[in-house]
Every structure is written in C-alpha cells, then in structure tokens.
Input
Amino acid sequence: MVAMRFRESEYEAIKRKADKVNLNFTEFVTRSALDKPIIIVDGLSDVLKEQKAIGRNLNQLTTLCNMGKIDCPDLTEMIAGYSAIYDRLNDITERCN
Output
C-alpha cells in the first residue's frame, strides 16, 4: 500500500474523471500513471437497454409459440430493431477506433 497526498481540489477533479469513466479512484490513477488506455463509450448503455427489451420480447414470443398459443409470429419489427441496434453498435465501434 502506498499513501499519496492531493489537494482537495485536485482529488475532486481526479475523482470526477474517474467517475465519468466508471473507474474507482485507484484504478483511474494507476491507468493514467502507466499510460494505459481509458476508453469512454457514449451511448452504449442505451443500446444495451434496447437490446435487452428486444430479447425479452423474443423470449415471450418463443414461450407463446411453445405453448401453442401462436403459430407463426411476425418478426419484421424485431428484425428491424436488431438491425438498428447493429448499426448503432457499428457507429460506436468506429468512434472507438
């Protein structure tokens, strides 16, 4: 263990940066000091929420099919949703490169 001293204003500034990239203070300082990459991916959480919602809908449709309540569901909307998510993930990936 190593102790370090910071001015309160410096500590708060570093803490804000660490919080912004979802790292704890120690991990952020370590990565910064060792010139390791710190990547911020904006918009990913929204894409993941959409993907989970579509996955839940697919699971519900699968359950209804297995129960015999529906025979052949129209998946056009779901396919379009997955296509849109794929496009957004491609955009995010390109920004990271």
